[in-house]
């Protein structure tokens, strides 16, 4: 009896996964197949469609790498949180509290609806108009630093340093520009040439800076962690 029930449920789930993959692909095609493209990405599209369709786990790296430097029970600030997928699934189970910001009027309602957690507060706010008061143990700036000009990045770095505690860590992700110099997204203000180009934005403000990369056929990823103290990796 049990084997029959498991076999039946597997069949149902197979059909459900096929339907879910199709509807999430359709959402991606409508949102990203036409201009203008959104400012943020719904990562349930990755979970339910793109992960299996492309056999590519690059989208998971971002949450994993930042989680590794989040201090247990940290008071955390996430700037440009987008859909809140990483906030909930990677950070909320480790941080004590998270203030997550995004300027997009559609992103924050989406995050509150689909990626809520008891220790997460989502706020609609443009970080160019100021950051919440610290100190914070961790600041995450994921997949968004490229949306700002060089001058804005430098100014925001100064504000982030002021809000991090002496052992606080800034971490996040961005990507390199294409070989022909064209931006991958028209909404990007500055795409980085390589690791050293990204590193130069941190070294005037932080004593310890780590920048590393992962390279896939479709994307060249850059990751960073910066602090005034040696950077620890936490389990």
* Largest sheet geometry: 7 strands, mixed
Number of strands: 7
Strand order of the largest sheet: 3-2-1-4-5-7-6
Number of domains: 2
CATH superfamily of the largest domain: Vaccinia Virus protein VP39
Question: Separation of termini?
Answer: 42 Å
Structural class, judged by helices and strands?
alpha/beta
Using the coordinates above, name the CATH class of the largest domain. Answer: Alpha Beta
Unreliably modeled segments: none
Question: What's the CATH topology name of the largest domain?
Answer: Rossmann fold
Helix run count? 7
Question: What would you say this structure looks like, in words?
Answer:
The protein has 235 residues and is of the alpha/beta class. It folds into two domains: 2-53; 56-227, Rossmann fold (3-Layer(aba) Sandwich), CATH 3.40.50. The chain has helices at residues 2-32, 44-54, 58-68, 85-91, 107-114, 150-163, 195-199, and strands at 75-79, 97-102, 120-124, 136-142, 164-175, 208-215, 220-227. A seven-stranded mixed β-sheet has the order 3-2-1-4-5-7-6. α1 crosses α2 (44-54) and α3 (58-68) packs across α4 (85-91). The protein is globular and about 65 Å long. The protein starts with a helix and ends in an 8-residue tail after the last strand.
Question: Keyphrases for this structure?
Answer:
alpha/beta; 7 helices; 7 strands
């Amino acid at each position: 009896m049990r084997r029959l029930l498991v076999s039946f449920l597997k069949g149902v789930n197979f059909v459900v996964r096929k339907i879910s993959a199709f509807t999430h692909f359709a959402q991606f095609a409508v949102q990203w197949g036409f201009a203008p493209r959104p400012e943020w990405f719904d990562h349930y599209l990755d979970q339910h469609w793109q992960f299996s369709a492309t056999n590519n786990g690059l989208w998971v790296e971002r949450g994993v790498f930042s989680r590794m430097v989040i201090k247990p029970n940290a008071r955390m600030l996430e700037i440009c949180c987008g859909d809140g997928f990483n906030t909930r699934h990677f950070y909320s189970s480790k941080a004590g509290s998270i203030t997550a910001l995004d300027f997009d009027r559609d992103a924050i309602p989406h995050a509150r609806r689909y990626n809520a957690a008891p220790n997460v507060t989502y706020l609609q706010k443009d970080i160019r108009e100021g950051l919440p008061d610290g100190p914070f143990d961790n600041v995450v700036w994921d997949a968004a630093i490229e949306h700002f000009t060089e001058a804005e990045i430098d100014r925001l770095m100064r504000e982030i340093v002021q809000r991090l505690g002496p052992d606080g860590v800034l971490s996040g992700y961005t990507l390199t520009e294409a070989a022909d110099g064209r931006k991958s997204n028209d909404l990007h203000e500055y795409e980085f040439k390589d690791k050293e180009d990204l590193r130069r934005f941190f070294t005037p403000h932080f004593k310890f800076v780590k920048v590393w990369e992962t390279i896939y056929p479709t994307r060249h990823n850059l990751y960073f962690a910066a602090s005034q103290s040696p950077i620890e990796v936490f389990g």
